[in-house]
Amino acid sequence: MTSWQPDLLARLAERVPGDVVPYGSVTAPELLDGWSDLDVAVTAREPFAAHHRTATEHDSRAAEAQAVLAGPLGARTALDAYTLYGRPRAEIEPVYAADPAPLEAVLRRGAASGSRR
């Protein structure tokens, strides 16, 4: 499987008016797969708009993603984001079965410790 992350990273570094610094799995190509995300930190040197130049089949889901992120961020946000991620993945990869139990365990542990992060 070809990973899309290095190509997108190169395009971002070329087009974003600022510094684009990768972190996470993209810095270790042997860990990448098609479902790995692309983690970058962007330091802008001037204002810029972040949008697609052309429509994609995923644009219809933008409102749903915005709704997940619209409220106060917290444990419910993490669970909602996980669910939002899982639906299209299951459409593309029928053998994928979402399992929120590990995330729920982490959230319970954080709540028990009194963590607000």
Automatic annotation (TrEMBL):
Record protein name field: Polymerase nucleotidyl transferase domain-containing protein
Classification lineage: Bacteria, Bacillati, Actinomycetota, Actinomycetes, Micrococcales
